[in-house]
Amino acid sequence: MPEALEQDYTQKQLLEVNKALSSGMFVHVRRMLAHMADCDIALLIESSPYKGRAVLWQLVDPDVQGEILEELSEDVRSGIIAQMDPTLIAAATADMDVDDLAEVLRSLPDAVYQEVIGSMDSQDQERATLALSYPEESAGALMNTDTVTIRPDVTIDVVLRYLRIKGELPEATDELYVVDKNNQFLGGVSLASLLTSNPGLTVRSIMEDEYESIPVTMDESEVAQLFERHDWISAPVLDENQHLLGRITIDDIVDVIREDAEHSMMSMAGLDDEADTFAPVVKSTQRRSLWLGINLITALSAAFVASFFESTLSILPILAVLNSIVPSMGGVAGNQTLTLVIRGMAVGHINSANQKSLVYKELAIGALNGLIWAILIASVVALWQWDFNLGLVIAFAMFMNLLAAGMAGAFIPLLLKKMNIDPALAGGVILTTVTDIVGIFAFLGTATWLLI
Amino acid sequence: MPEALEQDYTQKQLLEVNKALSSGMFVHVRRMLAHMADCDIALLIESSPYKGRAVLWQLVDPDVQGEILEELSEDVRSGIIAQMDPTLIAAATADMDVDDLAEVLRSLPDAVYQEVIGSMDSQDQERATLALSYPEESAGALMNTDTVTIRPDVTIDVVLRYLRIKGELPEATDELYVVDKNNQFLGGVSLASLLTSNPGLTVRSIMEDEYESIPVTMDESEVAQLFERHDWISAPVLDENQHLLGRITIDDIVDVIREDAEHSMMSMAGLDDEADTFAPVVKSTQRRSLWLGINLITALSAAFVASFFESTLSILPILAVLNSIVPSMGGVAGNQTLTLVIRGMAVGHINSANQKSLVYKELAIGALNGLIWAILIASVVALWQWDFNLGLVIAFAMFMNLLAAGMAGAFIPLLLKKMNIDPALAGGVILTTVTDIVGIFAFLGTATWLLI
Hints:
The structure is a homodimer. The first copy, chain A, is mostly helical. Chain A has helices at about 5-20, 25-35, 40-45, 50-60, 60-70, 75-80, 85-95, 100-105, 110-120, 120-130, 140, 155-165, 190-195, 205, 220-230, 250-270, 280-305, 310-315, 315-320, 325-345, 355-385, 390-420, 425-450; strands at about 150, 175-180, 185-190, 215, 235-240, 245-250.
């Protein structure tokens, strides 16, 4: 029967399991888990504080552990696998799709990896070796080998009989692929056209052969863009000689899209890779400290620049009071441009033909912003401190810094991308360094020159 | 034939069109556009500077304008529609899916909307009214009414014959829905099981009836979470009496997932709604200025707090030099926590059962971070200025501010969510205000007390 408010239901279920868990009613929890869908158990584990996870995992039926591992995010999964016995890992991964299997194997420490591979049967070892032969984040690593292929010259009737004997199709199969006897890819036939066409026709006569297939080496983000643009449900993956290797399905693409979009946001906050909301404290602190360390260097550089003006500051302490306003506004404005450009690059809007006009546009916005906020801050400061010259100084510094912010916000990600550095990861710090230093120089420098 | 490097090919195509466009070879451009896929034309328009778009749009074949409007992002689309004649809009929207139609109609100014509705035929008017009857961002607004339904008591053979007569299935159809004569939803039959089952069986015997369906009022982000968790390709939408209203397909869900994930990132930079990389300068400046205005108030508040310590600053100008370090570190650390919590809420990891342990965890990280960076900054400052007491003062301020940052970063989004305010939009400013003010107070206050 349809379930009305599934989301609320899931949340309620989670709360109940948590309650039972904290009261130590493990038998009850085990029984509840046995009735939950795999994906809900995965969500429960991901939303459990770190310590609760090991207990939960012990209570999960070993027969479904493999499916749950597939559903878990990489970070949470590797935490759980680290505490599992290698033979149990081998058993849990036995039925995994090739792409998930590769992901799990990649996350294992070397010694455990050898043990896991060693306790697999030869067929699974072969699957594992194949899965690991493609580079991470390529179409090959994302691909499954569960394609159903047919020949072009048979009739639909024959295909229908073949499918009835087969009895089942792999998940997310929306089309069968047509190949010749050398496994050369010729085209595809959708399940819908199999169902709606005259059974006397041949496969060739109904197959789609204007095909955009995916080379096995294509980057997963590009694959995701293609899926998104073409509204695909699955797509064939070919080698350089147009042989069919496998297929990619939309459920894996959804993960790539979510991860890509989140990656930018998390990277910009210096949280790269920390996809686990409830990672242990020490691990989280370690991961975040890199970013804080880099920021400390930026802040110290800014302080170092300010130290040139120590005598100015001792004469006019109001400058010290106002000193953080211009860098702060520059940081925010620059971050707006930076975010826009990083997002534009991620969705493929920015290319060599239009990046010049992007920079001009952001410079124009910077100049316009600069004008507006210069006038405003000048008025506020002039009225607050009753000092017209001070207002002029801060107005000039604001204009210069917002112009610099627009330029830096547009140039930095373009340059970083050319240097193959992830702009989301490094862009923010470099930008803040620029806007801090330009802001302080412009404000304290102009003040020293005009007011002292 | 399969196309090897489609992505590169698309980029090359875009560059060629841009070149032809800027040399004024409009006839040539028109011919190129006629050979491009709709989704590629949409990408071309989205990656064109604002002025080029109107020219490009004139060169697009009116027969495909509707499909291209469907592919465009909301922001870019409304810019183009604003320049179109209402009768042309009506013509272009005639073949749209109901959900896209609603989106376009919602973006029209009232007068144009009336004109567009007026120039539609009565069938389209009905479709439009239905589409607009569901609230924006609900399952209803996302849903299409192109379901194919069958009865439970017929045999598969009958269904197969029905489908052959029908001749075509709506896009992304992976299952047919089973309803009784009152349109009450009973279950679904996948195309795969139609193809693999014995034609003599009844629909009832092969239909899936353990169904999680979607209530028409469910929020689109919740719908997306369900799709993601269950790897669905399409799902039925029901009213409160379990009548089938329509279905939602994965291609629309992919858009929701991308938009949701981007929305957080863009909102955190104060770029809410600005999905258009090449929006006109004045419009962009307007949109971004709200955020800059709020930030100016934050920066002025911080300056106001600092102004209490003007006499301290005039005695010890080194305090002015160092004053921005502690707020800066607090801002970065707090932003890490904030981003993590916003993302955790977006993917459904955070609920009332675990938010306490989340806050404790972030407080613990804040304390540990505080300790590390307090010791480090104390050493740097004590050595740089050869002043042990100054080192102690900045260490104390750093510890307090990183503790405050962890607490604020976790509490602010939880509180904002309870108040139904988007944490991604408002969280950052509130957080910065907290870490700026705590940082300045802790540093300058302690310095005034201990060093003066």
